[in-house]
Write a structure and sequence with these properties.
By secondary structure, this protein is mainly α. Helix content is 65%, strand content 0%. It has one domain (29-273). It has 8 helices and no strands. The protein is globular.
């Protein structure tokens, strides 16, 4: 009787597969970038050259293009040293595109900061958070731009947002830490240099000021001489600070861009398909750069 009333049970649904875990890398993106820099023969001299180019307005666009092109090889498996050529047409062109992206992001962040800056108590914090978010967004947009070799690829906001969520920690580390650390060091050194220059100028100007004050009617030459004594060391110190800031920016940008290359290789490998590879017109070797899709 029990056998006649037996009803077969439906099979249990298959268990859902466990979520895919991200692979564990031996080094972070920033550490890998620093290793790439150090393996370049004469890397200190190359960073110095980049810093000198950074000092020249307009021409310094080539620094961003140079670093973006070097970072672009990483998602394709390239691990070549820093290229020997700095000032090229392609470096200037894509460095200009990077400047445009940074300018657009800067305008949006500035407008939003002005609007939200009126919030009591939180206005300053919101503006700071927007500035940091803008720095992260601009760097990632520039990296996507160089991967696709069109400025429009840098403004694919939906894809950028989806990709950024794959590993926020490494992305923030690569895009913010080099600039913040180097900027803090430069700020401290700059304050010391400017303070020393002002003290030196005041010490040199004090006897002239006393002499001029003793005279009932100081001459025009005495006044200009006093201003020259004060302005000379101050302007020289300001020039030192500017050059130091350019060298620091070159170092921070090198770490950030190369680190972003490693980040894209790990968390956005599909960006390598944004542009079709260009057939090589020269013999390639295993040690040669793996950077397909470079426009001719």
């Amino acid at each position: 009787m029990d056998q006649m009333n037996y009803q077969p049970q439906a099979p249990a649904p298959p268990a859902a597969p466990p979520p895919a875990s991200q692979p564990v890398y031996a080094k972070g993106c920033l550490s890998a970038a620093w290793e790439d820099i150090k393996t370049t023969p004469g890397y200190v001299g190359k960073l110095v050259v980049l810093g000198l180019i950074m000092c020249v307005p307009i021409l310094n666009f080539v620094v961003a293009g140079y670093l973006l092109h070097w970072a672009r090889e990483v998602p394709f498996g390239g691990r070549t040293p820093m290229p020997p050529k700095y000032v090229t047409g392609k470096n200037f062109e894509y460095g200009f595109y990077a400047f445009v992206i940074g300018l657009v992001v800067g305008i949006v962040v500035s407008v939003a900061g002005m609007i939200l800056g009126f919030i009591p108590l939180l206005g300053a914090l919101v503006s700071l958070a927007l500035s940091l978010a803008g720095a992260v967004a601009a760097s990632l947009m520039q990296m996507r731009m160089i991967m696709g070799y069109t400025i429009g690829d840098g403004f694919a906001v939906k894809d950028l947002w989806a990709v950024a969520q794959r590993n926020w920690g490494q992305l923030l580390l690569v895009t913010l830490v080099p600039g913040v650390v180097v900027g803090f060091i430069v700020a401290v050194v700059s304050m010391v240099v400017l303070l020393f220059a002002m003290l030196l100028a005041m010490g040199a100007a004090m006897p002239m000021a006393v002499s001029a004050s003793a005279a009932s009617d100081p001459s025009f030459g005495e006044v200009m001489g006093l201003l020259g004594v004060i302005a000379g060391p101050t302007l020289f110190a300001a020039l030192i600070v500017y050059v130091l800031a350019c060298f620091a920016e070159a170092l921070a940008s090198t770490l950030t861009m190369r680190g972003l290359g490693h980040w894209v290789a790990r968390y956005a490998p599909e960006w390598t398909t944004l542009v079709a590879p260009v057939p090589p017109t020269y013999p390639t070797t295993p040690a040669g750069p793996q950077n397909p899709g470079v426009p001719q």
